[in-house]
Amino acid sequence: MSQQPARVAVIRDVARLAGVSHQTVSRVLNNHPSVREETRDRVLRAVQQLNFRPNAMARGLAGRRSRLIGVVSFDTLLYGPAATLLGLERAARRAGYGIRIVALEQLDRAGVAEAVDRLTEQSVDGVVIIAPLMTAAAAVHSLPTGVPAVVVESDTAGELPSVSVDQVAGARLAVEHLLALGHRTVWHVSGPQDWLEARDRVDGWRQALEAAGCRVPPMVSGDWSPRSGYEAGRLLADRPDVTAVFCANDQQALGMLRALHEQGRRAPEDVSVVGFDDIPEAAYLSPPLTTVRQDFDEVGRRCLAALLELFDGGGPAVRHPRVPPSLVVRASSGPPRSA
Amino acid sequence: MSQQPARVAVIRDVARLAGVSHQTVSRVLNNHPSVREETRDRVLRAVQQLNFRPNAMARGLAGRRSRLIGVVSFDTLLYGPAATLLGLERAARRAGYGIRIVALEQLDRAGVAEAVDRLTEQSVDGVVIIAPLMTAAAAVHSLPTGVPAVVVESDTAGELPSVSVDQVAGARLAVEHLLALGHRTVWHVSGPQDWLEARDRVDGWRQALEAAGCRVPPMVSGDWSPRSGYEAGRLLADRPDVTAVFCANDQQALGMLRALHEQGRRAPEDVSVVGFDDIPEAAYLSPPLTTVRQDFDEVGRRCLAALLELFDGGGPAVRHPRVPPSLVVRASSGPPRSA
DNA sequence: CTGTCGAATGTGAACGATCACATGCGCCGC
DNA sequence: GCGGCGCATGTGATCGTTCACATTCGACAG
To answer: At the top level of its lineage, which domain of life is listed (chains A, B) (predicted)?
Structure first.
């Protein structure tokens, strides 16, 4: 009782209390099969009594793995990356892994390399790179081999396993929805072209139009920001042939709605607007925004699954899984007036 | 050249190559003063030649510190917590620390305790708890002592050092701005009352009104969501005596603007609206939103500073620093029509 | 000349777990 | 009846660093 020298219990203390060897305690901790039921109970009781917690550092040193996953994240507060990180953390925690995060200010080769370096130094078991930029694709190729790594939202044709939401399919969903409402064609306000997702959404938009035999209007370039959506809106608002606009994300759609409103064009009566992401605010814009939802939790889960398969030796069963997006129809899209 | 067995270099390899003992290498790595200049150079050269990286696990085991900081974060995609996390990561990286993150689904006592447990198990040097909820304050009190810990946005009167943005001052800024424009009084749509920040904003609102000798109208309860702002808007829109509304965050202000618009009340001509947070979208709402900006980077920096002071033995110089917020005036606020 | 001190460096033992291998023992098959 | 196999458990080495203490050597004061 009073002998306790304020020191945390280690495995040998547990062994002594349970009357077994330290190795038996280790076996119990790691669920080794050949431990007698009764012995296991005795050990577990001792563990509880001493409030013993295995030291992760020692574990990592002795064993091969740290049960830590490093995440290289782009230094941004955008909804997508943040949601992906959260989804990954949740999945990892359930699987008994911890998350070590490094945020990058710039997603260039040096930055990514240094971040991965930093993480391997910490003996992470694997790395997830949230790399939505084109520049990241190059950086990812020059990674030190030997570290199990999974890439998110990038370079789906590359050597590394990757997980991503099917942006092309998402964009097609949006465009097909608008065409089905009766619009002759759909305009597009794009994201920045150094983002892979932005390119894929452009591709999906174009594919859907071409598949339907529609004219493909010129693309309006944007950069994810509400401002770019606003400016695009001012550009398009006075054209009577613009009846439907697909914005590359919800923030841009927000700016677009504002510009239309200012120019006296009503949504969806005059112009239908569809966004992408389904940010929490989307349902509360005026009007509530029709958009494409991405399942970031699923992305996180699949990242972890791929990583675990990588740990087990072989490559993952599916090297480049694509998570299907879904369309959320709200009030910002409707039939054109002529229809 | 060909003898290299694909094994990473360890400290003894460096020692051998440099012709010194492993301990001397260790001294060089840790900037111990008593190493001859020439010896230091020789060691550093060997380090570079072998591309040696000290193993963080071994370091953590042998030494006392892991250079890791654990972050307990509430499982949310809200702008504030996400920005705080990012600011903290940046500050930590500059100081040579890494971030270990645990996201909580529920911010109750058991959750916080388990998260901190999980982190101490990983031998983190210290813990930052992003705990904006009242329930967290209780949980934080029952923390195992001995782990240096700093709390964010919570319980500024508690035993643990805390860092937070001065919410009361922020709310006063907003209200004083509206009163200065000539409004008789200011209504408030609150955040959820189990959030400390929400309570502080209510306090600031009330203080500012009382200080100015204004009538304090009943508070409208909300929950951060755009929906709650929208509903509050429908409630207030048909009251002619409502000319100025201070919303507890920007999302609520967004919903408020939509409701006003639907009810045919214009902002700011009929009703002025002010938000809180300055989310990236705020500048692009219709109209652009006047709001209170919080400096989350500064919060991150101060958290780290407090933690480092805690490591050095003594408590931090300032136990409960409050980061001042600032008012960002945009188009959603203006003088009342009568003025 | 000698004793003491501090700077520079080395030696071996931690740190707290796992791994590789050894041991004892009951059971089965020939 | 006995060799061998598999289960349950124990023993010592090992992971890669830092810590505690020992050693060497030159400088300097008494």
So the answer is: Bacteria
Cβ contact A198:A133 at 8 Å: no
By DSSP bridging, strand B98-104 and strand A98-104 are: antiparallel
Look up the domain containing B316 and give its range.
Answer: 68-165+296-323
Q: Residue B21, CA: closest nucleotide via C1'?
A: C10
C1' (C18) to CA (A302) span, angstroms: 30
Q: What is the per-residue DSSP string for A205-228?
A: HHHHHHHTT---PPPBP--SSHHH
Which residues make up the interface with nucleic strand D when CB must lie under 7 A?
A 19-24, 27, 32-36, 38-39, 58, 61-62; B 8, 10-12, 22-23, 26, 29-30, 52-55, 58-59, 61-64
Q: Are B180 and B283 members of one domain?
A: yes
* B307 and B159 part of one domain: yes
CA atom of A12 to C1′ atom of D15, Å: 18
The answer to whether B90 contacts A77, with C-beta atoms less than 8 Å apart, is no
Q: For the domain that residue B188 is a member of, what is the CATH number?
A: 3.40.50.2300
A186 and A165 Cβ atoms separated by less than 8 Å: no
In chain B, which residues have their Cβ closer than 8 Å to the Cβ of A57?
57, 60-61, 66, 122-123
Please say whether the beta carbons of B162 and B155 come within 8 A.
yes
- Tell me, yes or no, whether A211 lies in a domain: yes
Percent of chain B with pLDDT over 90: 67
Note whether B226 contacts A281, CB cutoff 8 Å: yes
Residue A144: what pLDDT? 67
The pLDDT > 90 percentage for chain A reads 68
A126 and A230 part of one domain = no
A224 near A252, Cβ under 8 Å? yes
Contacts of A293 in chain B (CB under 8 A): none
* Residue pLDDT, tens place only, A275-332: 999 998 899 888 899 999 999 999 999 999 999 988 877 766 677 889 999 999 999 9
Q: Which residues contact B2 (CB under 8 A, 6 or more apart)?
A: none
User: Using one digit for the tens of pLDDT, what is the confidence trace for B151-177?
Assistant: 997 666 677 888 999 999 999 999 999
